[in-house]
């Protein structure tokens, strides 16, 4: 009988496929809330998912919010019954607001591998996974000479223009306000007034600003020290660079944290620790276009350049939370003339 | 046997009821969203400082934008109504509609390519040896962009009105030897004047609640709107009560305007009858008509040309083969089809109600009819004044109370949001013609005892089909998918073209984004050519 083996194979396949389905159903799901650039098809999320699922016996699901702050607001709105186990992509400027919600648990991760410019990491709730500095990006061919500080920028003729973002709707926009505040303190207020004539326009988000810059509307745009790396590596375009400022550059550290309400804290913890592995840290630079948070064996791709800011500026989250409204108010007043 | 008075009233009610119910539902929706939000966190409803300054500046900005948009709209509609035959006229008409439906950022970058500091005009000036460079950032830029978005829409809508001037009247005007000015004052102005309040009101709402444009082209935070403050309250500070206070203020200001606009009532009964006759016109008139058309084309079409050329620089074949882009096209088209059918059906219900409430043979003479009519127009237009962030948050909180998976509700929420957003535009296209039809044919229809479906087939449909074709195409393109309103739902299966475009721009991929903008542009143009043609053909057969 020829039929028998065929049937046996079919039956076995059927059993096996059922078994697979059962296995898949038994797998726990780890839900990570993140923002769209990380979750994008070309972002780090798909690669991280592939790598983590190889070993975790779990289903890793990324849920997308429209922005970094959007992930926090979603979790806040959902409260205790949120589906999120982990939130990935908050930055240190809003981490304090996130801590105050009381929704986040300690990460208990081994942070010895971290090589952040700020030195040792002491926060036990939020775990950094990458960082970059805010900087003004320019086109070397169109703008051969760039200022080396805010003071120098303010002293330039008025037709030297920059494009910045609104601190009320954009992370870099807020970063710039804090940058000036950290570098200049009391003097920040009058400096904003001197910088105002150079501000071509203030946009809602990073995309609008960078779009205008690529249309050559202004000499410099507020972005990151890692932006030129994208053009060099992905587009093989060497024209772009960032202007090094003497007063130093404000740091943006991206962090992840797990939620107290997570039903699988161990899995969430292992995911957080996985973020610091060489696997993920090597994925980050050329997908998220930031610096990795650790020194990997492979190291940073060449296009990222080897210059780093003269000085690293960063304000404590508590201070940001306390003064943010007031500083934004001053900013608005000085720029609205 | 002709219909009696009481029968007419019953029929009037039957016509009015579905639209009344829908309008009522829309009001309930708005109220419950604000209620949910206000109660979500403890705190007081308080307006931040600087609020009144913001309101004042936004009002001035919006009024200027309305004046410019209507100016452009009237001039262009007038010129196009006289120049009825030239090569590319129908392409021009569909291009006019494209400006309203492309994503804001795309249009802004298109405008900047032409009018920016390094734009075509500045480059031309440099070539000519001039030191002058355009600087549009400031009030100029905001008004330019707003007139760009709304001027073309106004022209399209007013052209439909001008085309309803009966041939007999035009003939009479011609035989009396009217000058161009007399013709405009006695013939054309009366045909459009009644649709101006609603049109002006819609444009005002759009400009008063503008967000990305007032910032990106405003040059400084000086021109920001209440919408920016609402964003700050909800996103940055997470202070829903403050957001609700601001949203209520915005709604109140807009509500007063919408109510005022809806109190105006069309008295014109002119409806299109047959082909529009044309006579040779004096050279001066023809020249000025051509001048208006050429200037408008330069202003309105050059940014689209820039978008087109930018798009050609992208790797289009790779993009079109990309499964993600294909999926986005499918999703956008699916959503747009569903939404546009829903919008048009709802709009027809609302239009029938409004007609029943204004026709003197139905319910129009009742004392409360004017009030009801105004409140329906009010609830259908008001969503333009609800910040999409507030709407999105409201939907999100409502969906969480409902059974089923949150991601599934995202589909419903998106369609509802699309409908609410497109409804004012669709009503602006349909209402004037429908009211005119009723005023003119009500008596005849009742004396022939035409009602319900029969009346629709014989009276409304032949007159409305042109507007309906336009309305369907417009709502289709408006619903292609801005996902802002469902950002909180976290549904990653939903990828629409505009969303993909923003995602590409957000991660340095501006070439890909330009390619997607081109795909959107082509899609929009095809829709504006195909759908109205479908409507015209099916009616010819009938």
Task: Give structural notes.
The complex is a heterodimer of chains A (337) and B (542). With 337 residues, chain A is α/β, with parallel strands linked by helices. Chain A folds into two domains: 181 residues, Periplasmic binding protein-like II (D-Maltodextrin-Binding Protein, domain 2), CATH 3.40.190.10; 146 residues, 3-Layer(aba) Sandwich (D-Maltodextrin-Binding Protein, domain 2). Chain A contains 14 helices and eleven strands. In chain A, strands 1, 2, 3, 4, 5, 6, 7, 8, 9, 10 and 11 form an eleven-stranded mixed beta sheet that branches. Chain A is globular, with a radius of gyration of 23 Å. Chain B is mostly helical and 542 residues long. Chain B has a single domain, classed as MetI-like (MetI-like fold, Orthogonal Bundle). Chain B is built from 21 helices and no strands. The model of chain B has no long low-confidence stretch (mean pLDDT 84). Chains A and B meet through helix 2, strand 2, helix 4, strand 6 and helix 9 of A and helix 4, helix 10, helix 11, helix 17 and helix 20 of B.
CATH architectural category of chain B: Orthogonal Bundle
CATH level 1 class label of chain B: Mainly Alpha
The helix-strand sequence of chain B is HHHHHHHHHHHHHHHHHHHHH
Largest sheet of chain A: 11 strands, mixed
Assign the structural class of chain A, choosing from mainly alpha, mainly beta, alpha/beta, alpha+beta, or little secondary structure: alpha/beta
Separation, N- and C-terminal Cα atoms of chain B: 26 Å
Total DSSP E strands of chain B: 0
Helix segment count of chain A? 14
Fold-level CATH name of chain B = MetI-like fold
- Helical fraction of chain A: 40-55%
Q: Give the tally of structural domains of chain A.
A: 2
CATH topology of the largest domain in chain A: D-Maltodextrin-Binding Protein, domain 2
Mean pLDDT of chain A: 90
Specify the overall morphology of chain A. globular
Counted up, domains of chain B total: 1
Rg from alpha-carbon coordinates of chain B: 24 Å
Shape of chain B: globular
Beta-strand residue fraction of chain A: 15-25%
Gap from first CA to last CA of chain A: 93 Å
What's the assembly state of these chains? heterodimer
Low-confidence stretches of chain A: 1-23
């Amino acid at each position: 009988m020829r039929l028998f083996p065929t049937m046996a194979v079919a039956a076995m396949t059927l059993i096996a496929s059922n078994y697979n389905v059962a296995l898949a159903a038994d797998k726990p799901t780890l839900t990570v809330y993140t923002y769209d650039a990380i979750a994008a098809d070309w972002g780090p999320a798909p690669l991280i998912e592939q790598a983590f699922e190889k070993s975790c016996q779990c289903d890793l699901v990324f849920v997308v919010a429209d922005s970094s702050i959007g992930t926090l607001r979603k979790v806040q709105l959902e409260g205790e019954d949120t589906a999120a186990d982990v939130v990935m992509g908050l930055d240190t400027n809003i981490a304090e607001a996130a801590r105050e919600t009381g929704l986040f648990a300690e990460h208990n991760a081994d942070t010895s591998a971290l090589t952040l410019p700020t030195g040792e990491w002491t926060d036990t709730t939020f775990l950094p996974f990458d960082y970059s500095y805010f900087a003004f990006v320019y086109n070397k061919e169109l703008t051969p000479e760039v200022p080396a500080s805010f003071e120098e920028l303010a002293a330039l003729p008025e037709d030297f223009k920059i494009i910045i973002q609104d601190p009320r709707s954009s992370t870099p926009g807020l970063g710039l306000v804090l940058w000036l505040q950290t570098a200049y303190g009391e003097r920040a207020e009058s400096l904003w007034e001197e910088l105002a004539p150079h501000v071509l326009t203030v946009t809602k988000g990073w995309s609008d600003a960078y779009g205008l810059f690529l249309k050559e509307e202004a000499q410099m745009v507020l972005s990151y020290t890692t932006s030129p790396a994208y053009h060099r590596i992905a587009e093989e375009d060497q024209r772009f660079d960032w202007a090094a400022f003497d007063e130093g550059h404000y740091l943006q550290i991206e962090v992840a944290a797990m939620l107290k309400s997570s039903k699988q804290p161990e899995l969430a913890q292992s995911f957080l620790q996985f973020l610091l592995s060489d696997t993920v840290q090597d994925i980050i630079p050329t997908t998220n276009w930031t610096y990795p948070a650790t020194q990997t064996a492979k190291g940073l791709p060449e296009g990222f350049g080897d210059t780093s800011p003269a000085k690293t500026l960063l304000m404590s989250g508590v201070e940001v939370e306390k003064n943010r409204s007031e500083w934004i108010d001053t900013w608005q007043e000085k720029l609205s003339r | 046997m002709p219909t009696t008075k009481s029968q007419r009233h019953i029929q009037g009610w039957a016509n009015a009821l579905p639209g009344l119910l829908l309008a009522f539902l829309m009001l309930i929706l708005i109220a419950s969203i604000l209620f949910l939000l206000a109660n979500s966190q403890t705190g007081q409803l308080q307006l931040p400082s600087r609020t009144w300054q913001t309101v004042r500046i936004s009002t001035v900005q919006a009024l200027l934008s309305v004046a410019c948009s209507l100016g452009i709209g009237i001039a262009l509609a007038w010129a196009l109504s006289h120049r009825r035959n030239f090569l590319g006229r129908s392409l021009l008409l569909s291009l006019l509609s494209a400006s309203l439906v492309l994503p804001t950022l795309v249009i802004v970058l298109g405008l900047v390519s032409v009018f920016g500091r390094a734009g075509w005009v500045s480059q031309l000036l440099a070539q000519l040896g001039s030191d002058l460079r355009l600087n549009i950032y400031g009030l100029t830029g905001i008004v330019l962009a707003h007139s760009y978005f709304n001027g073309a829409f106004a022209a399209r809508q007013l052209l439909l009105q001008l085309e309803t001037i009966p041939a007999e009247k035009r003939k009479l005007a011609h035989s009396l030897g009217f000058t161009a000015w007399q013709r405009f004052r006695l013939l054309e102005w009366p045909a459009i004047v009644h649709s101006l309040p609603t049109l002006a009101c819609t444009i005002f709402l759009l400009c008063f609640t503008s967000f990305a444009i007032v910032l990106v082209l405003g040059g400084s935070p000086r021109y920001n709107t209440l919408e920016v403050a609402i964003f700050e309250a909800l996103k940055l500070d997470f202070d829903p009560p403050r957001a609700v206070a601001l949203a209520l203020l915005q709604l109140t200001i807009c509500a007063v305007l919408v109510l005022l606009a809806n109190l105006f009532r069309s008295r014109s009964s002119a409806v299109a009858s047959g082909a529009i006759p044309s006579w040779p016109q004096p050279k001066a008139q023809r020249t000025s008509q051509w001048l208006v058309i050429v200037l408008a084309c330069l202003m309105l079409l050059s940014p689209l040309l820039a978008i087109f050329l930018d798009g050609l620089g992208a790797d289009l074949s790779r993009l079109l083969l990309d499964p993600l882009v294909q999926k986005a096209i499918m999703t956008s088209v699916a959503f747009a089809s569903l939404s546009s059918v829903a919008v048009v059906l709802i709009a027809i219900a609302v239009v029938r109600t409004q007609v029943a409430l204004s026709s003197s043979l139905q319910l129009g003479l009742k004392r409360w009819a004017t009030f009801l009519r105004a409140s329906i127009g009010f609830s259908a237009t008001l969503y333009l004044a609800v910040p999409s962030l507030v709407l999105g948050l409201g939907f999100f909180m409502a969906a969480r109370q409902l059974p089923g998976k949150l991601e599934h509700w995202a589909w419903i929420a998106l369609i509802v949001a699309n409908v609410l957003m497109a409804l004012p535009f669709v009503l602006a296209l349909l209402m004037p013609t429908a009211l005119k039809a009723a005023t003119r044919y009500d008596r005849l229809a009742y004396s022939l005892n035409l009602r319900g479906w029969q009346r629709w087939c014989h009276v409304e449909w032949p007159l409305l089909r042109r507007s309906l074709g336009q309305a369907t195409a417009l709502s289709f393109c408006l619903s292609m998918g801005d996902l802002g309103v469902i950002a909180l739902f976290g549904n990653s299966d939903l990828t629409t073209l505009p969303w993909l475009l923003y995602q590409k721009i957000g991660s340095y991929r501006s070439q890909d984004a330009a390619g997607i903008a081109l795909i959107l542009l082509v899609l929009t143009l095809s829709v504006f050519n195909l759908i109205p043609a479908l409507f015209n053909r099916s009616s010819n057969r009938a």
